[in-house]
Each structure stands twice: as C-alpha cells, then as structure tokens.
Amino acid sequence: MARRIVLAVLALIALILGTVALPLGLLTAAQDRRDFTAETVSTATTLANAAEELLDDHSSAAGLHRAVAQFAGQGDLVSVFDAAGRRIAGTAAVPAVSAGRLAAARATAAPAVYPADDVLGVVAPVRNDSGTATIGTVVLDRPTASVDHRIAVLWGLIAIVATAGLLAAALVAFWLARWVSRPLGALEDAAQALGDGDLATRSPSDAGPSEVRRLAVNFNQMAARLEALVHGNQATMADVSHQLRTPLAALRLRLELLAQDSDDVVAAELAGAQEEIGRLSRLVNGLLAVAQAENSTAVPVTVAVDAVVRNRLSAWRPAADEQEITLTAAAPQRVPARIGDGQLEQILDNLLANALDAVPPGGSVVMTAEPAGDRARLAVADNGPGMSEEQKRLAFRRFATSTAGGTGLGLAIVNRLVISSGGTAALSDTPGGGLTVTIELPAAPAERSQRRLTGSSRPPRDHRD
Question: What is the pLDDT of residues 373-419, one digit of tens each?
Fold first, then answer.
C-alpha cells in the first residue's frame, strides 16, 4: 500500500510537471529563438542602412566600417557587396553564402533568413533612398551559441525544479504512506492474530488518519465483544459438562449397585439401561466436542503431520488387531502444517474410530500424508461398505449416521476442527470400494517448520459415528 501511494503521488506530480513545465520550456525556448532571429535580422538591416549611405549617398565609409567592427567584436561574420557583386566591406572571416542567395536577395526587398547547425545566416538587400532598386547586399552569419546556451540553462533549471519537485513529492508521499499504512498494518496484524485465536489482541488506535483510528476503535470493540462471547460460551460448556456428567456417572453407579442384588430378568433390564446411559454419555461428550470445535480459539502451531500419523498408528493398532483389521500408514516425507495444538490428533482419532467401526474383519484402513503445494494433505481410506452420495452429502452434519448406536458427531467434529484451522474436508469413494476422507490443512513455511511429535501419550478418543 505504501508503495502504491508513493508511486501514485509521484505519477501525479510527474503528470503535472509534464503538462506545465514541458510546454513552458518549449514555448520559452521557441520565443528565445524568435527573439534571436529578430535581433539578427535587425542587425543585418542596420548594416544595410549603413551600406546604403556609402553606395547611394556616396558618403564616407567610416560609419559602415565602425558598424562592421562593432558586430565583428560580438563574433558575427559580415560581408557587404555592391550591385555588381563585389565585396566592398566586411570582417576578415567571410561568411558562407552562395551566388544564388545573393541573386535572390537582389530580387527581393526583405531580408532572408537561412538557419544552419551552429549559425544563423541573414541575407539583406541594400535599397536606395527611394526604395525602387537594390544597390547592394549584406550577408550576416551570427553564431547561435549564445541562444543555445540560454536554452540549455533554461532546460537545466526546469530539470532541477522538476527533480526537486519530484523529490519533495516523494518525501511527502513516503511520509503520507507511512502515516496511513503503519496503523493499517498494525490493524492487519491484530486481525490476523484474532483470526488465529488470540482473543486478547487489540490494535493501536492513536495513530494515522481519523478514519483509520475510528476503524481501529471499532475493531477493538468487536474483539472485546467476541472475547466476552467466546469466554462466556466456554464457561457455559464447562458448566454443562459438569452438570451433565456428574448425574450420569451417579446414575450408572446406582444401576450397577442394583444389578448386584437383582435376579436375572431385572439384571438384564438394568444392563440395557446402563448401555443407554453409556450411549447418552457418549452423546454428551460428542456434543461438547462439537461445541468446543465451533468455538475453538486455539492458536495454530506448526505440526509435523507425518509424525502425528505414525503416533496415532501406534495408538490405534492394538484396537485394529483386535478386530482383525489391517491398519497401515504412508508418510514418506516431512509434512508440516498449521493447526491448533492437539487438534490433529483429535481429527485422526475420530476418523480412525469411524473407519474401524465400518470396516469388517479382514478389512484394511490406510492413512497417508503428503505435501500439496501450499497445503498439507492427509487421507484416511478404508475398504468398508462406504457411503451413498446422499450419506456423503449429509455426513458432516450433526447426528447424521448410518451406524447403529452411533452418535453422528464424529465427522461433524472433524469438519469443525478442520474449518477452524483454515482447511477443508472432503469425502470420496475408495478405489475398489470403501470411503476416503481427505483433509487439507494450511502448510507451514519451510523456515518455520519444526520436526515435532505432539500428543504421543494421548489415548484414542471415543467420538464414534
């Protein structure tokens, strides 16, 4: 932004200088040349008048010689010819003139101008007193060095003024750009920090134009309200978790005590009630997990996806072996990604729990991780029954499940966690049959990536569909 402001101001000043200074310089230079030409013609006319006194009035030649000497001292070259074309006066150095120009001058009554590279030539006829005949010719060559020098000085002054104007404009534009862009940059950083989950971040509101300051104030008010709202939701979730889990645990304990002293029929009914309580507990835990994902404020950190995949492979392999399911992973290279600390483990736990529930004995589940441009791609593929198109369309919604006894919250949790980290989640058919869940997360810059293993001791989570 600062560069655009500076370039825009410089372009505007350059346009103004171009439309004012350039035409002014051209007009002034043209006027100087016209004045120089007029002065040279006037000098030639003066010499022609002096020559007329000698040729027509037969007066002394002293006046003509004085005039020639005066202009010769200024660097002019002069030749005076009579009607027969004989040179009767002039400077030691003879100006260059052709016979044709002399003949043309004798046939006209006005001086003729012949500009050259470094001189201006004027051929003026000498007329008699009555003006009826041409009795001689004056040839004057005047060097243009003086007028060229004046024009060069003029353009030099214009260039200096234009350069000084552009420099002053650049300084003013740079100051203006910093004055505007610095608080906007701070506001952008604050917005980025807020988006990354730092709810306590605020933007300075005491610098820049009044509009930017008002924007910063409004941003800070929004951030404060968002912080209060999220913290309130988190407190509510904690209270709900405590209020629901405690009576459920107490109810399960009482049912277990009743079952110890009951006959077989009552014990069977109590066992069914305990199963329903267990399902209700899983449902409560799942709802709380979804709510936490939706209100997630975890600051993204650099996570080695390949290391987390190997970690979850070790954690879930005993459960897969128990169900006679082959669980493998393929992560041949480092795959750094940006995601909240511990969230990738939670995502994989839910995906693996769903896959192991869906795949029959003898089946397989494969986890893969690889970089994909500016994203990190993670996939969990199984060869189970898969999903229909309608089931895939609804899979990320709450309570959408095709598994008996499932809560329908596992993929909803995955989707919320992925989206809150700036990623995407998609479902597709596994080649040969089954379901593949593909997760793409923002990749971490190489210089910020660190090889790390997070949550190596965390147990598998039970948020199954």
Answer: 889 999 999 998 888 888 888 777 765 565 554 556 678 878 888 88
Q: Assign 115 to helix, strand or coil.
A: strand
CATH topology of domain 2-149: Beta-Lactamase (3.30.450)
Rounded CA separation 387/382 (Å): 11
Task: Out of 1.10.357, 3.40.50, 1.20.120, 1.10.287, select the CATH number for domain 196-297.
Answer: 1.10.287
Q: Which two tokens stand for residue 440?
A: 């793409």
> Which of 414, 413, 398, 362 has its CA nearest to residue 383?
362
Residues 81-88: contacts with CB under 8 Å, at least 24 apart: 81/136, 81/137, 81/138, 81/139, 82/55, 82/135, 82/136, 83/55, 83/134, 83/135, 83/136, 85/137, 88/51, 88/54, 88/55, 88/61, 88/136
Q: Are 453 and 313 in contact (CB under 8 A)?
A: no
CA distance 303 to 157: 63
Closest CA to 339 of 420, 437, 450, 233: 420
d(CA 225, CA 202): 12
Question: Which ranges of the chain have pLDDT less than 70?
Answer: 1-2, 196-197, 233-235, 237-243, 279, 282-298, 398-409, 445-465
Instruction: Give Cβ neighbours of residue 387 (< 8 Å, ≥ 6 apart).
Output: 395, 402, 427, 435
* 49-69 per-position pLDDT tens digit: 888 888 877 777 788 888 888
Domain boundaries, the chain: 2-149, 196-297, 298-448
Fold exhibited by the domain 298-448: Heat Shock Protein 90 (3.30.565)
